[in-house]
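Recap quiz, item 2
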Amino acid sequence: MSLLSAQRICVRYGATEVLHDVSLAIEAGEIVTILGPNGSGKSTLLRALLGIVPVAEGGILRSEGLRIGYVPQKLAVDRSMPITVRRFLSLPVRVGDAAAAEALARVGMGGQEGQQMSDLSGGQLQRVLLARALIDRPGLLMLDEPTQGLDQQGEAAFYRLIEEVRTLTGAAILMVSHDLHVVMAASDRVICLNGHICCEGTPRVVSNAPEYRALFGLGTQGALALYRHEHDHEHADGPAHHHHDHDHHGHKHGQKHGHGHDHAG
Amino acid sequence: MGTNTGRSTGTGTTMLDDFLVRAGLAAVGLSLATGPLGSFVIWRRMAYFGDATSHAAILGVALALATDLPIGVGTLAVALAMAVTVATLAARGWAMDTTLGVLAHSALAFGLVAVSFIPGARTDLSAYLFGDILAVSRGELLLVWLGALGVLALLAWRWQPLLTATLSEDLAHAAGIKPDRERLVLVLALAVVVAVALKVVGALLIAAMLIIPAATARSFARTPEAMALAAIGIGALSGLGGLGLSLWKDTPTGPSIIVVAALLFALGTLRRRV
């Protein structure tokens, strides 16, 4: 059976229905990305699957004994709290030094146990959060916009790390993102969300789906403003982004550029 | 101030008969609770929250005097009511700066007015505002230690989930911890500390006793545990130092304790700059 499945869940904040009739299932070892514009309910969906947000209707099923590792969208460690990376890894369950060292090494933060959390850069912090989620040897890893605030290089490196983690540990991975390019390349399956599931499938199938193209305004002038680019597109086009290379004009967040977006046509 | 009514009458021979020993023990006992709790107050930016709860204690004193209940019971009940109210409003997203300002000062003002209606209580008021540690009786000393050890045990028991919820409510939720419940633990601990500390430093300075030693400890600590332990030590040192200052210069004891705590904070800050 699936590791985790949601059956026709609805989530409401007061009178506002944020998620409507969402069903999905995560299988062992796959990388699934939930993609959607801002306000589409993707973070809410992840939080509902984790049990942070209550569902108004429908149900969520977890396979028995499933351990979930969670990497939150951001963690603001106040300077008023002194806490080392090592101490942080032992929250809320205390872990041994060997397990902590192994997890840190896996995310490329080996030997950083003594660092203060508040001194870490954004990329380092994401890696430590990932290390913490990995310690428990989870069967499913959930990440909420894990690369927010990282530059393009850091972002690509982080997704490579995620794939590595899947290969090494066999954990399934469920991510939330609003970023099309990198995620498309790194996912087995993409779920397009806008309050409800618009379309889903392999990256190739989804990127050709009319629902997806409508949601992200592909092919309509300037509608990219629907979603925010977090990065500045100063990198050279990698092969992973090849089919999107018309996007790379060094544009800034949601500016109206008349680029064609007819890659599928 | 400093009505030294607790002096041994000469018949007893144990150490606890000495009012100074009792005062010193009360100060040390209190810091056992204020060290770790004060650390949480700082980490969670609850300073004003401590103010509101401790100011409400004066209202508790008035109610206790009017109803012939023990002072400790009155302050504990009102502090708890205030703490729960504030925590509930905070959870509902009220503008805390304004809400706490209104609640803290209203509670203090209502308390002061209410006390003035009670015959004879008006003269004792400064003891509740600034503490009366030199007059701590054996029974009160026992209550201070029981309350402080109770708070310490509560915080030690909930330490891991409390720390997790303080760092990130989402991380806590995902790990099956209920942040609301952990917040309630802190609220309860705060009410107990207020009731216990009223006699030692007085309602006006309880929040200072929570914040200043913990803030001083921050400069020396690399982990949350180290900060909480250092805050206990610095709090105890402030208590004993303030007691000494009070005896030496005949100053009010409660404020003297805070003066010493503030001096230690300044020293810690200077040491860091050098």
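Chain B is about 75% helix and 0% strand.
Residues 1-12 of chain B have pLDDT under 50 and may be disordered.
End of item.
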